[in-house]
Amino acid sequence: MSYVDYLVRRAIHSVPVIFGLSVLIFLISRVIPGDPVRLALGPEATDQQVAALRAEMGLDQPLPMQYADWLFGVVQGDWGMSLRTNNNVFSDIVARLPATLELTVVTLFFAVLLAIPFGVVAGTNKDRWQDHLSRITALFGVSMPRFWVAIVLQIVFVVSLGLLPLSGRLSDGVAPPPAVTRLYLVDSLIAGQFGTFVDAATHLLLPTVALGLATLAQVMRLIRSDMIDEQRKDYVLAARAYGLPNTLIEYKYMLQNAFTSSLTVVGLAFGFLLGNAFLVEIVFAWPGMARYGVQAILYQDFNAIVGVTIVVGIGFVTANFVVDLLYGYLDPRVRLEEG
Amino acid sequence: MADPILEVKNLHVHFETHDGTAEVINGIDFAIDRGETAALVGETGCGKSVTVKSIMGLLPSATIPEGEIRYKGEDVLSLSDAERHSRRGKEMSMIMQDPMTSLNPVLTVGEQMMDVLKWQGRPRLSLSKLVRDALSTGAKAEHRKRAIEMLGEVEISAPERVFESYPVELSGGMRQRVLIAIALLSEPDLLIADEPGTALDVTTEAKVLDLLDELVEERDTSVLYITHDLGVAREVSDRINVMYAGEIVEQAPTADLFANPQHPYTRGLLESIPTLSTGIGDGIEGHLPDYTNPPAGCRFADRCPHAEPDCHEAYPYPRQTGPDHATACHLFDGLPARERHESLAAERVDIGTAPWLSAGGDTHSGDAPGDISADGGTDQ
Hints:
The complex is a heterodimer of chains A (339) and B (380).
Chain A: H1 3-31, H2 36-41, H3 47-57, H4 63-76, H5 89-124, H6 129-143, H7 146-160, H8 184-190, H9 194-231, H10 234-241, H11 246-276, H12 278-283, H13 289-298, H14 302-330, H15 332-336
Chain B: E1 4-17, E2 20-33, E3 37-41, H1 48-56, E4 62-71, E5 74-75, H2 81-87, E6 92-95, H3 109-119, H4 127-135, H5 137-153, H6 159-164, H7 172-184, E7 190-194, H8 202-219, E8 222-227, H9 230-236, E9 239-244, E10 247-253, H10 254-259, H11 264-271, E11 319-322, E12 325-327, H12 341-346, H13 367-376
Parallel strand pairs in B: 3-8, 3-9, 6-7, 7-8
Antiparallel strand pairs in B: 1-2, 1-4, 4-5, 9-10, 10-12, 11-12
Helix pairs in contact in B: 3-5, 5-7, 7-8
C-alpha cells in the first residue's frame, strides 16, 4: 500500500469518528440537567410561552430531527448564544482559539523536541548520572501541579529576576500584528515585525514551560524505556558489527523504532493540553479558549460548553489523524501489513 | 599455522553479575589461517557468541582480564575504541544469526545498505559529511549501483525491487541473503558467520550455505563459522573447534575430527545427531556448569560418562594428541598444545606432571583412551 493510499484510508477512517463524536456531543448537550428553555425564559414564564419557545428552538421535534438541525447549525457556524458574553459562541471561540492553539502547539513542539535527546541520552546511559538526572526531572515534571509551577516561575523570573513579562500575550503598547492566522508568532513574522515577534515569544516562554514540563517528562521517560528495549534488539548489534557510528545507530536506527509509542502519547497530549491549558491560562491571564471553557462551566453557559467540547473533540481527532500519518511514515509495517 | 589472519590466545572473558563474576570464557586458543574457514561448534550458552563479540569488540559490559586477540598480527585489545571502530565492518564483518530481527524493520534494505557504504568505519557522524552527501548525487548513485550489484551477487533475482523493499516484504531466505550482502559490501578479510540459516527451513538453509561458500571462495575470505550443528560445520569448514562451557575442548581439521573424535563431549555431540539407522540421537545428560562458580577441574566432568575422580580436581590442559589435533581431556596424553604448559604452571593450575617428564614408553599405556579412540572410529 502506497503512502497516499494509506493517507486516504486513514482520512476515511476518521469520518465515522467525527460522526460519533458529534452524536455524543449532541446527546450530552440534551441530557445535561436543566431545561434550556426554562433557563432562558426565567421562572415566571407561562406554560404557553415555554411551549412556544420550545417549538421555536425545535426542541419538540424527535431527537434525530433535532440532531440534524443541530448539526446543520454547527456546520454553518451557528453555535448558539453565550449566556455570559451574549455573543455567538462560534465567534467567541474563534477569537480565543488562536491564543490557546499557539500556546499548545509551541508547548508540544518544544516538549517533544527536548524530550527526544534527553530520552535518548537517558536510555543509552541507563543507570548512570544522565539517567538519574532525567528520572529526577521527570518526577518533578509529572508531580508538580501546572499552576504551581506557573506561579513559581512568575515569582522567580518576573518578580525576583525581572527577566520576563508577567502575563498576557503582548506587552502594553505593542499592537497585535495584522491578523492572518491570529497566531502572533506567525503573524508578526509574516508582517516582518521582529520586535513584536520577540515580544510575543517572551510572553510565551513561561506559560509554555509551565504547561509543557509534564508532557516533556512523560515523553522523555517513554523514549528512554523504548530506547532501552531497542538496545537489546539484533538489528542494533548488527549495525554495530557493520561499524556504523553510534550517533547514527541511536538517532536513526533506534529512535525511529522507539518513537512510535511516544507518538501516541504526544497525540493524546495535544487534545489534553487544549482542554487543560486553563490552569496556566488563568495564572498568566492568557486570553485563550481553555479559560473561556472553564468560565462557561462555572456560569452553566450551556452553548459555550458544547462549543468548547466540539473544538477540543475535533482537536483530539485531528491530532490522532496526524499521529496515524506519522506512524505510517515512521513505521512502514503499519501500512504494509494493513494492505 | 603459517600466517594466521586471526589468533586468539588464552582469552578470558568475565562478566560481573549479581551472583559474582561469571567466568564465561576461560582461556581459549585458536587461530584462523588466511582463506580458511574455521568452525566454532558448541551448544547454546557455551560462549560462542561471547567469543565472537569479543573479537568484534561488541561487549562493552565484559572485562577481558587476560588474553590476546591478534588480527593480522596486531593485538586488537590494545587498540583505542576509534581504531577498533574503523576496523569493524570494513576489515572484519559479521553475518547475523536471525534474518527476521537483524534488519532494521523501519528502513528499506537499500537505505540500510547505503548507510553501511556511507558510514562504515567512521566512529562519529560528521555534519560536513552529511551535507556533502546530501549535495553529491554522484556518490549516491555509485553507492546505489554498488548495493544493487551486491544484491545480485547473493543471487537475488530482482535486486532493484529488493533494494526498495522494507524487510517485512521479504521472505526469510531473502533477508538472510540481504544480511550476507551487507556483510560482504566492504569486502572484509575476515567474516564471522553466526549460525546463518539456522532460522530458516532446511532447504533454504542449504541453499544459503552453498551460496555463502561460493562467495567466500571467490573472495578468498577467511571465515569464522559459529554453529551448534556439527553436520553444518562439516559441510562448511576446514577446521573445527569444539567449545564447551567457555573452553575449547577439541580442535582438529574437519576430516580428522570426524574420523577420530576424541573428547567425550565431541563424541556426545556426534551421537546426538539423529540418523536414519539409529533414530533420534541420545543427547548428553545434564547442563552447562554455573559460570559464576565453575568446577576447578574439567568443566565437562559432571556430564562425562568417562569421568574419573581426578577429572573433578585437575584442570585438563589441551594436549597434542595428533600432528594437528588437540584435546583437552585427561583421558588422553600428549604435549600441552600451543605451549600452554608453562603459563598454566605459572598460574599454579594443577595439571599433573608434564607428560614429557614421565617415562617416554609409558605415555600410551592408559587403558581408557585406547577404548575411546577405538569406539570413535565407528561413530560417524
